[in-house]
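User: Okay, second chain of the day. Same drill as before: sequence in, structure tokens out.
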Amino acid sequence: MTIHKIYSRAKPYRPIESNRNLPEHQSFTPSYEKDATSMSLLMSWHYGHQWLEESKLFRQKNMPVKERRFIDPGTKGWLQKRMTATTRRANNLDSNQKPRWA
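Assistant: Same drill. Structure tokens below.
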């Protein structure tokens, strides 16, 4: 009888061509990694706040801003698709429908 492992530790996966080799990839390195760390600053979350501020500035400076796209204000067709057929007929919105009595 064979024994199968139910759980095994995950192995890190790194592709052959890493993103660091790509010319457009820019990695963020906070300024506190260049200096010696202090335990008091580490315990007070000073480094965490500093990382948040610096990463926000890095993203604003280096990431392109996409142009926002908005839905056109003409919502008549959108509303008609979501109405029931009886509501459309009652409001005379169906131009293709002929009245039943005609």
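The mean pLDDT is 76.

User: Thanks, on to the next one.
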